[in-house]
């Protein structure tokens, strides 16, 4: 990963933890994310009664989660329609195996990717 890409990931993580909607929306447009696929479909997990989609910001996060195979990289242009199609998913869990993991409602991520500046978690 290039230094510029590492900086973009760091800014996105900082924005997520500060709840800075503008920084997160911008970061999601700059940083490709990775998801796991199984049989050509996104791998969705259950967390209690909620369905969650694990999303990874870098390969360290991917390796820490311990999934086999290679991740599927998505840009904001491919992530948005995927999240719109996964209406049954409740939350996105970003970097789920890291101590810095953060959970964001799927609908909030869709709004940010779609250019709407709603308040995450509402």
Question: Could you characterize what this model shows?
Answer:
The protein is an alpha+beta fold and 122 residues long. Helix content is 42%, strand content 22%. It has five helices and eight strands; from the N terminus they run H-H-E-E-E-E-E-H-E-H-E-E-H. The strands form three sheets. A four-stranded mixed β-sheet has the order 4-5-7-8. It has a two-stranded antiparallel sheet with strand order 1-6. A two-stranded antiparallel sheet has the order 2-3. Helix 1 (3-18) packs antiparallel against helix 2 (21-30) and helix 4 packs across helix 5. It is globular and about 35 Å long. The termini are far apart. The model is unreliable at 117-122 (pLDDT under 50).
Highlighted features:
single chain; 122 residues; 5 helices; globular; disordered C terminus
Total strands: the figure is: 8
β-strand percent reads 15-25%
Report how far apart the termini are: 34 Å
Mean pLDDT: 90
The topology string of helices and strands comes to HHEEEEEHEHEEH
Oligomer class: single chain
Strand order of the largest sheet: 4-5-7-8
Q: Indicate the overall shape.
A: globular
* Main sheet makeup: 4 strands, mixed
Helical content band: 40-55%
- Pairing-aware structural class of the strands and helices? alpha+beta
Radius of gyration: 13 Å
Spans of at least 5 consecutive residues whose pLDDT stays below 50 are: 117-122
Q: How many helices?
A: 5
């Amino acid at each position: 990963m290039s230094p510029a890409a590492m900086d973009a990931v760091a800014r996105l993580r900082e924005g997520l933890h500060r709840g800075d909607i503008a920084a997160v929306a911008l970061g999601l447009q700059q940083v490709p994310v990775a998801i796991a696929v199984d049989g050509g479909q996104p791998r969705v997990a259950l967390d209690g009664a909620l369905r969650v989609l694990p999303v990874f910001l870098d390969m360290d996060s991917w390796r820490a989660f311990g999934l086999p195979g290679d991740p599927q990289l998505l840009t904001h242009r491919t992530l948005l329609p995927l999240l719109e199609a996964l209406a049954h998913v409740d939350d996105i869990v970003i970097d789920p195996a890291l101590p810095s993991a953060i959970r964001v409602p799927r609908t909030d991520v869709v709004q940010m990717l779609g250019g709407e500046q709603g308040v995450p978690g509402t």
